[in-house]
Design goal:
Blueprint lengths: L16 H14 L11 H9 L3 H11 L9 H12 L5 H10 L8 H10 L9 H11 L5 H7 L8 H24 L15 H8 L49 H12 L1
Helix pairs in contact: 7-9, 8-9
Length: 267
């Protein structure tokens, strides 16, 4: 006889009992196995026990002692496993987990809201939707999504709308980033970066000799240090470095020009 769906085995070391219990119940419904077709639960007990792994089956057998598993009803086995796998929950402990939760780095707003709702299962909040909305916004990662939600009216904003706004801002942000990365870049082919004139900078940084005016040596090393200036007749500098005002002669030639010619003679 064919059945709907696949009934996987259950290993308590790898899987969650509450989740598996819900899945096997749905499998029974899909295959019309229930109180009408299996009034004493013998068939459901056999299917459940055959779906348990070896380690889980041994655990269930130990929990059933002093009875044998085949002496315990289907509902009785469910109660044994429920009692063992479902720890007693502390309301304030569960609320602490809820309020301490924050959005993870790669978590979308929708995923964050779904995970947060799951944390409220045993919190017994009186106004769960408002509490969820507040924690959803407060626990979000810093960014445009959170900033946008902070501008909304606290009296009218609902959780579903907050998730919608956050998803919209996130999509717009990713879309803008993708558009910016695909935009054509400026053509750098013909862009020429001028090279710095190192030689001129080096010359400018050198100190001129106060005797002859050249920059390839220091004043104390100048070989013209004992020469007399042809302009002021003072020893210690050449005409080109003389501080006396330049006087233009009748022919329009300045003393400084004459000095340049004389400098060749001085040399």
């Amino acid at each position: 006889m064919s059945h709907f769906g696949i009934l996987y085995s259950f290993d308590h070391t790898l899987q969650n009992w509450a989740t598996y219990k819900s899945r096997i119940a749905q499998w029974f419904i899909a295959n019309e196995i229930g109180a009408k077709t299996d009034g004493d639960g013998v068939k459901r007990r056999a299917i459940l026990l055959s779906a348990l792994s070896d380690t889980t089956y041994r655990l269930a057998a130990d929990l059933a002692l002093p009875k044998k598993l085949d002496e315990v009803t289907y509902e009785g086995i469910l109660k044994l496993l429920d009692k063992h796998f479902t720890p007693k929950l502390c309301g304030f402990s569960e609320r602490h987990k809820f309020y301490a939760a924050v959005q993870e780095l790669e978590e979308t707003p929708s995923q964050w809201a779904a995970r947060l709702r799951g944390l409220t299962a045993h919190c017994s909040f009186k106004n769960i939707e408002e509490t969820l909305r507040d924690r959803f916004i407060m626990g979000m990662l810093p960014g445009p999504e959170k900033e946008k939600l902070f501008t909304q009216d606290v009296d009218t904003l609902e959780l579903a709308k907050a998730v919608e706004i956050a998803e919209s801002v996130r999509s717009a942000r990713f879309g803008a980033a993708a558009a910016a990365s695909s935009a054509p870049q400026q053509n750098q082919l013909f862009k020429i970066n001028p090279r710095p004139n190192n030689s001129s900078n080096a010359r400018a940084s050198k100190e001129k000799c106060s005797v002859c005016g050249y920059t390839n040596h220091k004043t104390a090393q100048c070989r013209f240090a004992n020469y007399k200036c042809k302009k002021c007749n003072t020893k210690g500098h050449l005409r080109r470095m003389c501080k006396v005002n330049v006087i233009t002669n009748e022919e329009g030639e300045s003393d400084d020009d004459v000095g340049r010619s004389a400098f060749l003679i001085d040399k």
